[in-house]
Amino acid sequence: MVTGYKFLEIGINVGPPSYVEIALGDHRGQKLILSLETWKGLYEQRWNIYKLLRNDYKDNFISVGPLIIRVYQMNDVTLVRLESLNVRITMIKSTLRHMFDLDECIDVTFDRLVGFVDTIDTKYMRFSNIASVVTDPEKVPNAIRLRYLR
Q1: What is the mean pLDDT of the chain?
Q2: Contacts of 70 (CB under 8 A, 6+ apart)
Q3: Helices marked H in 45-92
Q4: Cis peptide before 17 (omega within 30 of 0)
Q5: Which of 10, 28, 93, 137 is the most exposed place for a label (fewest CB within 10 A)?
Q6: Cα→Cα distances 134→47, 128, 150, Å
Q7: Span 32-61, mean pLDDT?
Q8: C-alpha 83: how far from its chain's center?
Q9: Are 79 and 3 within 8 A, CB to CB?
Q10: Which spans in 8-92 are helix H?
């Protein structure tokens, strides 16, 4: 089994209400959306997850909020699977370690993005109000541009 490329995104999900989210994804289109609380729970459980990787833990899984973290072997490779209700992301243990190494960067980026959420909600509402009075969907971008050039 090839686990492929993984990515970690931190971005604003535009609402209303808008909010910051963390996403873990892979080259197959799987995307696991995490709240900051779930990410922090995962990070706080990292030592127990490392014990799982060394087979020093009584079970082969740990629950963290809505996630289940499972460790298993396939073709002599230790794999870590993060599962939610409808998404599974599988990675090798070094990928998991690298992801945990990004915790401080994730915190800083998350906090900075949270500072933009109110502005984004305000602009979104303005755009929505303009778009709601335009009957031709193709004219919406032009109507928004004209409104902001005044």
Answers
A1: 89
A2: 60, 61, 80, 81, 83
A3: 46-53
A4: yes
A5: 137
A6: 55, 10, 18
A7: 86
A8: 13
A9: yes
A10: 36-44, 46-53
> How far is C-alpha 147 from the chain's CA centre?
34
Of the candidates 115, 112, 105, 100, the one whose C-alpha atom is nearest the C-alpha of residue 69 is: 100
Kindly state the average pLDDT of the residues 74-97: 91
The SS3 assignment for 21 reads strand
Q: What are phi and psi of 25, to 5 degrees?
A: -140, 175
DSSP H/E element including 85? none
> Has residue 58 got a pLDDT over 80?
no
Q: Which residues contact 105 (CB under 8 A, 6 or more apart)?
A: none
Higher pLDDT, 19 or 145: 19
Q: What is the DSSP letter of 13?
A: E
Question: What is the mean pLDDT of the segment spanning 26-53?
Answer: 91
Give the pLDDT of residue 53. Answer: 86
Residue 45, pLDDT score: 93
Element (H, E) at 14: none
Residue 16 CA to residue 122 CA, distance in Å, equals 9
Query: Which amino acid does the sequence have at 53?
Result: L
